[in-house]
Amino acid sequence: MHQIFTIHNFQLFIIFLNFILIFFNSSLIVIACTQQYRKELNYLDYYLGISPGNEDGEIGVKEQLMDKYINIASQLNCDFSTNCLWANAPSDGLLDNSDFYLFQKNNDKSFPIQVGPGNSHPEIGTYFAFAGNLTKDPNHATLISAPIACQSTTGILSFEYWLYNNARIEVIVLKVNPTRGHLTVIERPITDCHYLKPNGLCQVEIKRQPQPFRLALRGFKLNDQTIGSFVLLTKIKYEANLCGFYVKWVHQRKPIMTTSDLNCGNEEGNEELFQECLWFDFSKTASSSVSHTAHWSIGEKTYLWEQIVRTPSKPSGQFYFQFIDPIAEFPLPQLRSVLVPCTQSPSTLSFKFWLSPGVQAQICTLGTDNVALSCVYLNEADVPGPLTVDIDTADHQPFRFAFNVLRVDREANGGGAVIALDEIKYNGWLCHEQTPTTSPSPIPPLASLLQLRPLPTANSVDASLAFPNSLECDFEQGDMCPHWMHNSYSDSVTDDSGDEAVDETNNQQRFRLGLVPRGILPLPFPIDGRFRGKYSAVAVLDLRAQEEQFAILTSRPIDCVDGGRVSISYFASPGAQLSVCANEQCVYPKRKRFGSQSTSEMSVALNSARPFRIRIVAERNRSFPIINGFYEPFVLIKRIAIQNKGFCRLKSSEEITCNLLKCLFNEEGICRYKSLFLAAGDVPFVHKKGEGISAHFTSGMRRAVLRSPNFRISLNSQIEMHLIASLSTFGSRLYICPNDQQQQTQRKLLAEIETMGEGMFVEEDDTLKELGNCEPLLGPKVVRSKMEHLIIQLDPEIRHFSLVAIHDKFEQFGDAQILIHSIKLNDLNGQSIC
């Protein structure tokens, strides 16, 4: 007869049981209370018929395999009779703050009715994982599995279990490694396993898992200060289809006969056979080549690409990749090329690449002794490339290429990281190859081949065309894009340099509009078919010039941008390169070797909290020698695309003009205006806080000139400038002079100074003659000093103006002062433009 337990007796048993669990957590208590511990084990044996499964009650674990990926699902099956691939999770104070312990059924006593829903008559010799507590605070114990690389279909995790006094059990899918010391949950599958279940078999569906993970069995609500609670479980079984972690390929080891033999992948991704490429996965040690998880592989699918790599750009067709899982050990396997015998001149390797955030990688050349000759770091900002690396092999020794990952930021990539490579191209001459000994015939000038004609500058068109509400530009459709032909040298929002042509230097070439013929051009390299028969902006760089050669497309001013992007479709011939600059920082796409196509899409992220311009710079690349007279290096740009999200609204020319000219002189000082000194006797404007800016005329002081910043308004604009100013003395005058008149005045006065000497005054009649075309605003009749409100219609033809104050009647009327309070701009309805 099996003994019948009373509820009272069983509750007393639980109290003793929790004392035993405390024993397992503290060896000091064991030393002090060995006799009491033995007594409690007797109670445990008496009430449940179970005893510790080994001397210290620890669950047996295959320690060496707990951080290795399992090969098949059944490796996680466990009845705790032997060491398993399950272990107590490291306590993190959140998901886990207690442990499971190993117990064994040692007699035929049945479990009391309060313990269920599992079989109340487990077989003698059955092993259990046991977790329980007699505490006030919540306790939770978690068993975690060895890592699983990924699960390709829905799987099933099952186990037998017993619960007592509201204890619960759940299944969790965890990331392989803790994040900042805490277990990180990927998913909590539905775990409908409670005390009232008709049987003690718990079955939980595990959804498809495309990333590395661990399974976890978590007992919780293990707290009852009076009678305690516990979880018993055994016979864990895992059934699932696991995906292969990597795919090896048959690599070729034949020697290369030409540099193009190392090419792998193409732009379209068609008819690619990466298995035949002369690149291979290499591990530094034989043991790591077998056990390592982060091998280089050939991929085609990009499932979850954006979550792992975090960029919308993807390789097309096949590509090389290395998945660095959370437990991968360094040094990682490398992707190596076969040996390059030697090269007779500098060569280049170009490729596209992608990196997960936080991945640090490099491309190196290695000697035959596997010692690195030189290395180049792969910069995340250059993704996706193509990146081109110059190789200098003047010693004519054999070498090979090697890609390898140096470091991974585990915090940024808790679920693993990826490096991917595509479109690998190698260009150069091997030592045994015959190179041309005669210079090719000169080709006709590109100006005639491409039918080049000037592009209109921003200064030569109406302001509405120079300052549109979009930065988009499509030269391919024949657009002239004057909004990309602004002054190239001004870093301010306006170009204060006057005529743009004055600022061009001898070494700056202009972009011009050209039409690439549909046929084959007499060039030693092909031009991509997408450029043929289409218009492009063309920069031809002078081959004979000794100084640096460049041509620049400069955008209209941009107030700010946060996460914007500019993309340029271009072709750069050998000997030329392109860069994109903003706020004195430039990004260079990587160039390609002579004899190869250099078509690319350059995409640059932009962030700026202050006004700036985008500059697209075409320049000489002197690292590629070109035979004199053979051809001129050039750059074609067919399209400039803008991701408008993130860009501040582009202001109209009228709004820009308003922001430039508007000024509360009484509060802001002189703003963007300039006080000019053109001749002896000129007086400066100075700021008088709370009043404005003023010029004070005394003996010998005759004139004050305030020049506006440059501005542009469209021909159909109707803008009123509201000027508040005052004169203090009879005989003084205030004029407004348009830009041409002011320039003529300045040139004549400077000429007179050179003729008469710097200490000489300009004769009054000459000054008055120069002001003959200016418009008088105030004076000379001044009865008393008072602020006058003047309204001036701005002429769309002028680019700047000067306010000129004259006082040449000092001998008759004494000192004088002009005070300018403010300038504002309104439309015809009286509304402020800015």
TrEMBL record:
Keywords: Membrane, Transmembrane, Transmembrane helix. Gene3D superfamilies: 2.60.120.200. The chain crosses the membrane at residues 12-32. The keyword Phosphoprotein does not apply. GO terms for cellular component: membrane. Residues 76-245 form the MAM domain. SUPFAM superfamilies: Concanavalin A-like lectins/glucanases. This is MAM domain-containing protein.
